[in-house]
Write a structure and sequence with these properties.
heterodimer; A: 5-stranded parallel sheet; 5-stranded mixed sheet; B: alpha+beta; 7-stranded mixed barrel; 3-stranded antiparallel sheet; 16% helix
Amino acid sequence: MTARIIMKMAVADTRAITDSVRVITLRHPRRAHLPKPTPGSHVDLHLPGGQIRQYSLCGDPDDDTVYQIAVKREDDGRGASRWIHDNLTAGGVIPVSAPRNNFPLAQAERHVFVAGGIGITPILPMTRHLARHNIPFELHYCAHAARDAPFLPALREVCGPRLSTYFSIAGDRPPARLDVETLLKSVTPGTHVYCCGPQRLTQAFRAAANNWPESYVHCEVFKPTLDENFVAEPFDVKLASTGEVLRIPANKSALDVLRAHGVGLPSSCEFGICGSCACRYVDGTVIHRDSVLDITARQEQMILCVSRARVSVTLDL
Amino acid sequence: MLETRLAERSASPTKWSGGRLLHIHIAPAASFEMEEIEEANFIAGRGIEGDRYFLGTGTYSPKPDYREVTLFEIETLEALARNDPPLQSGPIMLAPEDHRRNLTVRGVPLNHLVGKRFRVGQAVLYGGRLNFPCRYIEELLGLPLYLPLYNRSGLNCRIEKGAVVRRGDPVEPLDD
C-alpha cells in the first residue's frame, strides 16, 4: 500500500441504475483534473464514523474530471452501502482517496473477463479501454436477471458481440449458466483471464484456473488496509557485515533493537509511512507491514520500524 | 581559525528585514489535501486551529517534535519549477497547497531561523528545526521530491505567542 492523497469531493450526481445499485459521480470542488486512474482502479471512501470502503471506478478511464462509482445496497452488510444510498446525495461532500489499482490490465494480446453482478464495476472501464484500442477481448457477464445487471446497456454498446450474458431468470427462455471450467479450457494460449464477482463465482474461477500460470489469472480482492489481527512474534536479525545476531522481542521493532546495539540508522515517521529506515535484506522471509514500499522494492528491502521476519532475516548492514 | 570565523559569523546576525505570508493551508488529518484559508487561529503551544497537528491526527503526531506550524519558501517552489538545481529530468510544478507545510512565505530565509524567534503578523514563532524531506510526500503526490527538497524542505516551528494570522501578514525578525 502506498500513501495516497485524500480529497474532499462533492457529489455531482447520483442515480439508480437497478433496484439496488446507484451510480455516484464525484467531482473536486477546485481541481479540474483528478489523479488519473487506470482501468481496474478503485478509490477509498472515508465515511463518517471512520469506516473506509473501497469502490472500483466504473467511469470512462480517459475522463480525469470526475470519478464514478457504483454502490450496491447490501441490507445485510456492515452499513456502509446503506449509508451511501440513504445519505450521499447531490451536493454532499465525502473524502475520497486518489485511485489505486490492485486489479490492472495485463499487457496481453487477448483478454477474457468473467463478471458477476456488481463485480462488473472494475471490468467496465477495462472493456472501454480495450475496445478503444482495438485489443481483442470477451466478457462473460452473469447476473440474476437482466434488470438486475448493472451497466447492461453500456456494456452492450461498448462490447457489442464480445459480450455474453448469463441470467438465471430470463423470462420465457431457459436460465443460462456460465460454465467457467469449459470457458477457461477454450481460451487460446497467451490469453489473460480476469474475474470479479460474488465469492461463489471467484471460487469456481480460481478452481478452473488452478493449473494456469499465476501471472495470467487476475482476481479482484479487496484487502483490509489495516490488519487488526496481526500478532508480532520475536525474530532474529543477522548483520551481514559482522555476522552478529540480535534477537528482536515481540514488543520491540528491529529499528529499536539495532539502535540500542549502536547501529545508527536513519528514521523519521517510525510507523511505516515515510520510508526513511528502508534497509536491504539478503536472506530471510520478511513480513512487510509498511505502507511505503511497492511489491518490487519489497523483494530486497524492508522497513525496519514496522516490518518483521519469520524466524530470522539477514540485513545488508 | 575556523572556530574564530564561525564565532564571528554567529555574532553577526543575518541581515534580513522581513518578508510576507502568501498562503495559509491546513488539513484535517494525515493524507488529506491541504485547504487554503484566509485567516488562521494560531494557538500557543498547540498549533493552527483545525490543522492535523493541532488535532493530533497528523502522520507524525505520535512523535513529539516542533510541528505546531510549518513554513515553506515560495522561492523553493519557483526553483523546482525551473529545475534548479537540475537534479531531475525536468521542472516540477508544485503548488503551494501541495508541499504540505502550513505557511508559504516570500522573502523569509527559513534556513537562517533555526533557534530564532520571529513574528508572523501578531503571532510569535520559534524556529525549532529544519524540516526534512520524507518519502511519504513523494508517495502522496507521485512526484520525485525527496532529493529536490533536500535542505529546502521548510521550517518546523513552535508557536510562542498565539494570534489570528492572515494572508498577506508581514513576517519579521525579532531581536532577542
